[in-house]
Amino acid sequence: MIFSYKVKDLKGKVLEGEIEAKDQFEAINKLKLQKYTIISVNQSKRKKIKTGKVSLKELTIFSRQLSTLVSSSVPIVQSLSILESQIENKNFARVISLLRKDIESGLSISDAMAKYPDVFSELYVSMIRAGEVGGVLDTILDRLATYLESSAALRDKVKSALMYPIIVGSIAVIVTVVLIIFIIPIFKNIFLSFGAELPLITRIVIGASDFLKKYIFHIIVFLGVFFYGIKRYIKTEKGRRQFDYILLKLPIFGIIFKKIAIAKFSRTLGTLVKSGVPILQALETVAKTSGNKVIEEIVLASMKSVKEGGKIAEPLKKDNIFPPMVTQMISVGEESGSLDTMLFKISDFYDQEVDASVKGLTSMIEPIVMVFMGVVVGFIVIAMFIPMFQMGEIASKQG
Description:
Layout: E1 2-8, E2 14-20, H1 24-33, E3 37-43, H2 56-71, H3 76-86, H4 90-104, H5 109-114, H6 122-134, H7 137-194, H8 200-234, H9 237-249, H10 253-274, H11 279-288, H12 293-307, H13 324-336, H14 339-398
Antiparallel strand pairs: 1-2, 1-3
Helix pairs in contact: 2-3, 2-7, 3-4, 6-7, 7-8, 7-10, 7-14, 8-14, 9-10, 10-11, 10-14, 11-12, 13-14
């Protein structure tokens, strides 16, 4: 939901704007974290503005270019006007145009960006707000661009980890199904015309072929309904948590997902802390952008710990998701005042670990699929050739 607010900053200046939150209580807390004195917070009647698709690459280029213009002392409105004229994506150009008009009407840059959550995430808006308050908007924009580039690289690693085994496995299944449905029936007709009793292995393969041909439509419908049901269940709170927990505990793949989650957590929190975002707001943003319900709950527990005067590191030990090395490095970072540095070191380390794991997975999947295909195809070939040898022997005796 969007809330309109009226607040006073530390200098007593009255500010107005809009903020996104799940309820009024959360909106007030977000404003208090920014050291504002609340005058009023009410739900906005404005509907969420729909924007078209804007890619991560386009947002990264925009951030880098805007950083360059701002650091060159070009006014923000003029900078946005320049970028608007050269952006090829019409949807993004429209958003930049609306953004420029909002800023011209008196909204702060962060509040204007918050109106377009489909383009500018909560993390993005939080960092921009910190940049405005600290007077280092150009530095924050450059840091955002670097973060987005790292996020894109991490996302590509996830795709690489998943796509190769999915493609190779799918090809193996398709080849097996084609053999059973289309090739086996040809041999079956030959064997039946000969009239000899078939070996058990051949009868098993022919039985599998008959079953698949007869019920292929029913199987497809069942699988469709099954996966649709799982998809619906995953959208529930309980289902999402169970699914995310299973992902992190899967053999082989779970290790990769865990490393990806740690790398994302470390880089996101490190970027927010280094940009001057208050720690509670940073942890809340990290939780919401984690993409994993289990990680989200752990980070929210850390947020609660900090509110009560505790440390970030302690709740991270829950469910053994974060290894001891990670929690110890975060603990050292908290005590030494170099939390952002430690978090970046962790994210760099786990980025390399993800690379190594993906390469290892790729090299391991190929021989496994080859063995699977060899066993299945070999089983089918043997099942078909044994009766042919028997037929040859009978034919020679009859001759």
